[in-house]
Amino acid sequence: MSLTNEQYNSIMREYDEMRQRSIRESEEKVKRIYEKYPELKAWENRAITLKVQQSKAAMDGASREKLDEITDEITMLLVRRQSLLESVGLTDKDFEPEYECGECKDTGYIYDEAGVRRKCKCFIKREMEILYDQSGIRVLLQRENFSKLTYDHRSGDDLERLKNAVAICRKFVDEFDREYKNILFLGTVGTGKSFLSCCVAHELLESCHSVIYMSAIQLFERLADSRFGNTKEESREDNENIYGCDLLIIDDLGTELSNSFVASELFGLINERNLKRRSTIISTNLSLEDINDRYSERVLSRLTGRTGNYMLIELTGRDARQVI
Ligand SMILES: [Zn+2]
After folding, report:
1. Does a structural domain hold residue 102?
2. Is the Cβ–Cβ distance between 308 and 182 less than 8 Å?
3. How far apart are CA 177 and CA 246, in angstroms?
4. Which of 19, 46, 77, 178 could form a disulfide with 106 if both were Cys (CB 3.0 to 4.6 A apart)?
């Protein structure tokens, strides 16, 4: 699955607009600075004129002394400029556009260490939003994030478990770029599994990571759709984002139809993401025994064994959504 030309062009137009807006705002800001401190502009212009004069003089064979004299004057002008900036609390950054994404300067592309042009992570995030039509998720995330977290309706052991889970999720977010980890949420309906998944998704989207949030039903339908009529390799390419996004959240595992296709796709997906060290969060009402029976022992061992890197979080309590 990749963007159609139309979708791609529409993203690029958004970037163009964003970039133009930042540049325009910056130009206005710089203009205001020069209006307030006209001497800045005068010194800068003088420095430019001197540099041109110096180049000409060098070509005309001017003496070293003469050239040094010009250099000194330029330096003096720049020092004056710098000290004025400092005295009024400005820096060179105030003369540059403030881009939404500092990394790609709102172009959507960056050059990696090898000099290869690649999509910036902000572009990939945008791409996911379009490809996986996550607009519904965005609305959900406004409602379900750490700022909306409440411990009401929880007490005793249930409360302790929830607090512990929240601490683990916060740490998961904080260490996301350094530590490869996954989460398996276990527990009955309404204990907060999906809510906490949303909290993590919200935080990581805010920090410009590519996050795909799908219910197990949607996920396996999608995988089946792309597999239909494709070779295994083609369908893998088709679902590159599901296999490679920074964080994949599979909500409500176990609500999809149970069959051998699902079991083998799930194993393949978990395994491949593990090899790529891409994090996954799974929430399920199933018990570990159910997982074993439904998807096979090798899936269970990926989720519970050391190689799978999953943290198991079990939440308990009454269905908080039913409590008024
Ligand atoms: Zn970017």
Report:
1. no
2. yes
3. 9
4. 19
Å from CA of 129 to ligand 1 middle:
15
pLDDT, tens digit, 9 for 90 and up, residues 270-295: 999 999 999 999 999 999 999 999 99
The Å distance, Cα 126 to ligand 1 centre, comes to 10
Q: Which amino acid appears at position 101 of this protein?
A: C
Kindly report, residue by residue over 110-122, the tens digit of the pLDDT. 998 999 999 998 9
Distance 236 CA to ligand 1 centre (A): 26
**Segments forming the whole domain that contains residue 159:** 132-322
Q: How far apart are CA 306 and CA 290, in angstroms?
A: 20
Total of domains in the chain:
2
Domain contains 265 = yes
Q: Name the nearest CA neighbour of 145 among 164, 126, 170, 120.
A: 170
DSSP percent split of the chain into helix, strand, coil, nearest 5: 60, 10, 30
Dist CA 174 CA 14 (whole Å): 30
Question: What span, in angstroms and rounded, lies between the C-alpha atoms of 305 and 288?
Answer: 12
Q: Can you point out the beta strands (E) in the chain?
A: 109-111, 117-119, 182-186, 211-215, 247-253, 279-284, 310-314
Q: How far is the CA of 207 from the centre of ligand 1 (A)?
A: 11
Indicate if 20 and 167 belong to the same structural domain.
no
Cα 151 from chain centroid (whole Å): 28
Given a cut of 50, whether residue 221 has pLDDT beyond it is yes
